[in-house]
Design brief:
This protein has 4 helices and 9 strands. By secondary structure, it is α+β, with helices and mostly antiparallel strands.
Length: about 140
C-alpha cells in the first residue's frame, strides 16, 4: 500500500468549508464523513480531515490554534502548471477564500497562496520539471 497523509484541520462551520472546497473541485469521501467530520479528497494519497472544532478537541489536550491570529501549519499543494496555480487560487479567492501572501515567481518556480474560510493557509506551487532534474545529484 502506498503511504498516505491525512491532515486534520479544525473548522468552525463544516458545511461552509465543504462548500468552499467543493467549488475548488475537491470531493468528500462519505465513508469517512459524518455531521462532525468530512474527509476531503485531494488525491489518491492525500486527504484532509475537516473536523468541527469540538470534534477536533477530542484528539488533543492542547488548545486549538486560532488560525485567524496565528499560523501553525502552511499546506502546500503542487500544480501541473503556472496556469493551474492561477486557476486554483483564483477560484479559491472567488469562492470565499482570502489572500495569504504575495505571489512568488522565481522563473522555474511559481506559487500563490490563499486562506480558506477558517484562515488555514494553502500554497499552490509549480516547479519546472527540467529545473528540478538539473538540481539532482
Amino acid at each position: 500500500m502506498q503511504q498516505m497523509i491525512f491532515v486534520n484541520l479544525p473548522v468552525k462551520d463544516l458545511e461552509t468549508t465543504k462548500g468552499f472546497f467543493g467549488k475548488l473541485g475537491f470531493s468528500c469521501n462519505p465513508q469517512f464523513s459524518d455531521e462532525n467530520t468530512a474527509c476531503l479528497v485531494i488525491s489518491d494519497t492525500i486527504f484532509v480531515m475537516l473536523l468541527t472544532e469540538p470534534r477536533f478537541r477530542e484528539f488533543t489536550k492542547k488548545e486549538v490554534a486560532d488560525a485567524s491570529a496565528s499560523t501553525e501549519v502552511i499546506l502546500a499543494l503542487s500544480a501541473e502548471s503556472r496556469e493551474k496555480v492561477d486557476e486554483l487560487v483564483d477560484t479559491a479567492l472567488a469562492s470565499g477564500g482570502s489572500p495569504a501572501n504575495p505571489p512568488m515567481d522565481f522563473g522555474s518556480m511559481y506559487g500563490r497562496s490563499f486562506q480558506d474560510p477558517d484562515h488555514h493557509i494553502w500554497e499552490v506551487m509549480w516547479m519546472d520539471p527540467a529545473a528540478v532534474e538539473g538540481h539532482q545529484s
